[in-house]
Amino acid sequence: MFVKSIKDNAENTFFPENWSDDNAKSIALSEGLRLSADHLDVLHALQEYYSRHEINQINIRELHDALNEKFHHSGGMKYVYSLFPGGPIAQGCRLAGLQPPAGSVDKGFGSVV
Question: What angle do CA 26, 23, 67 make, to 5 degrees?
Answer without folding.
Answer: 100
